[in-house]
Design a protein that fits this description.
binds thymidine-5'-diphosphate; globular; Rossmann fold; alpha/beta; 8 helices
């Protein structure tokens, strides 16, 4: 089963990811992330830091996804493992739709088309949602932020995510990121166990 954690910067999904390591240790999940742990992931981080051309950046994110699928996600799912990824394809749809606005005619369609047919759709996606002001106060001081971490960008990104959650209610679970982090982690861990038990989320090969 493939579970993904999504949300804007400052939404606490990396904290949630870390908490799930402990709460779900008995299930021996594969914990992973995008941008990934390969040199392609390093190239993405460099691209973010250097603020290169948005199309270059977007395609690097997709390349990182391909490497992530090939080296981590597909092998783990083939072994029947539970995979929990901190960010995944919805990050691309939500963020790069914003960065590619005015550069590519229909950014979201273009991004989705780049994934169609070879990528793997998550079985379950937890979307951490919170007021933008709260997210901004949780982030580093303004000067030290990545170029995505601006109010105008994060507002649009979160609205994109919420639209995806509305369009795919059977995959998305919206999580109130203002709750206590322990409560969030327990809720999500419980929901993952429920999905595993119900078996309805078993991946057909
Ligand atoms: P993030 O998960 O915040 O990594 P870190 O904790 O190392 O900073 O991801 C880095 C940034 O990249 C974040 O602002 C979201 C953005 N991002 C995209 O724009 N598109 C993507 O496809 C992914 C995976 C991340």
């Amino acid at each position: 089963m493939l579970v993904t954690l999504e949300g804007i910067d400052g939404s606490g999904k990396s904290t949630l990811h870390a908490a799930l390591r402990e709460l779900l240790a008995d299930l021996d999940p594969v914990f992973t992330r995008e941008p990934g742990a390969t040199w392609v992931g390093d190239a993405v981080r460099r691209a973010i830091a250097e603020q290169i051309d948005p199309v270059t950046e977007a395609t690097l994110f997709v390349a990182d996804h391909a490497a992530h699928l090939a080296t981590v996600v597909r092998p783990a799912l083939a072994e029947g493992k539970l995979v929990i990824s901190d960010r995944y394809s919805d990050s691309r749809y939500a963020y790069q739709s914003v960065t590619l606005q005015g550069i590519i005619p229909e950014p979201e369609q273009w991004l989705r088309a780049m994934h169609n047919g070879w990528s793997i759709i998550p079985d379950r996606t937890f979307l951490c949602v919170l007021p933008i002001d709260e997210a901004l106060t949780r982030l580093k001081p303004a000067g030290a932020r990545e170029h995505f971490e601006k109010r105008e960008v994060l507002e649009k990104v979160q609205n994109n995510y919420l639209a995806y959650a509305r369009n795919e209610p059977s995959r998305f679970v919206v999580v109130d990121a203002m709750l206590e982090k322990e409560a969030i982690a327990e809720f999500v861990a419980g929901a993952i166990r429920q999905d595993l038990k119900s078996g309805k989320k078993k991946r057909k090969k």
